[in-house]
């Protein structure tokens, strides 16, 4: 960066936090941009066979003395006669009234994928894709900026996600795809088969990191004849994002350029009748038109360019 050059400011909603693989528990980390309605935190791991209890705390700061307020305390307990979950709030050093759930959707020796979904007035929790509980806020969500994980738990991955931007036809919980625990990244260029083509409602998800000196990034969807009716290309030289036709014609996407060196990104492509909708870093950016028959004939996803991929899901 040259002297005096100022980087474009990025709103908090555009800043994705890198996933964390195999953190050592106890584990405390800052939540980039804090929490707000629409954000999700995903926790993937296992409960040890001899587990007594663990807790996931959404804290207002990370000081040791005085102890920070805990807006949301999620505390599964396995060692009691009837395993259960406690949710509570710590305010000015005092615990508030406990909220108790007598059933426990987690089991000793079992793996899990927990989604914490933050709404305007309450947090909802799903375990392995099923609704588990909801907990109404007692402190403002805007105060939460720290995640703490403690106790008897093996954590494989922690993810910080924006809510799925495609609202039509959505269920109570957005789809949460597991990370690849401990993966050092997928080699690029890479290719992934689409043996059944694409159909309405299917979502392609790519998560990764932009390299330090990027040149371009290209995502192609190829048909049975190896033609690419869908090409998405990001050019770092002129900071443009465009759909490219099979004949090389570019149609620029009128949106902020959200790929930045050494920053994480998330690309979502939602298949719907008549084409594909695009979102980048949780922001819906537009669509490209493609007939249903053309979508069904797509057989391959190819990714190339100056990125390191951590997740490809379709």
Verbal overview:
The chain has 314 residues and is mainly β. The two termini are 37 Å apart. It has one helix at residues 292-296; strands spanning 20-21, 27-30, 39-46, 54-60, 69-77, 84-91, 94-95, 99-101, 111-118, 122-127, 130-136, 146-151, 154-162, 190-193, 203-210, 216-223, 230-235, 240-244, 250-252, 264-272, 275-280, 283-289, 298-305, 307-313. 29% of the residues are buried. The chain has 2 domains: 20-162, Jelly Rolls (Sandwich); 184-313, Sandwich (Jelly Rolls). Strand 20 and strand 21 (275-280) form a beta hairpin. The chain is elongated and about 65 Å long. Strands 2, 4, 5, 6, 7, 8 and 12 form a 7-stranded antiparallel beta sheet that branches. The protein contains 1 helix and 24 strands.
Which structural class is indicated by helix and strand composition? mainly beta
Number of strands: 24
Taking the sheet with the most strands, its summary is: 7 strands, antiparallel
Q: Which descriptor suits the 3D outline? A: elongated
Number of domains: 2
Mean pLDDT across every amino acid position = 86
- State the CATH architecture of the largest domain: Sandwich
What's the number of helices? 1
Give the helix level as a range of percent: under 10%
Keywords: Apoptosis, Lectin, Nucleus, Repeat
InterPro entries: ConA-like_dom_sf (IPR013320), Galectin-like (IPR044156), Galectin_CRD (IPR001079)
GO molecular function, one term: lactose binding
Protein name: Galectin
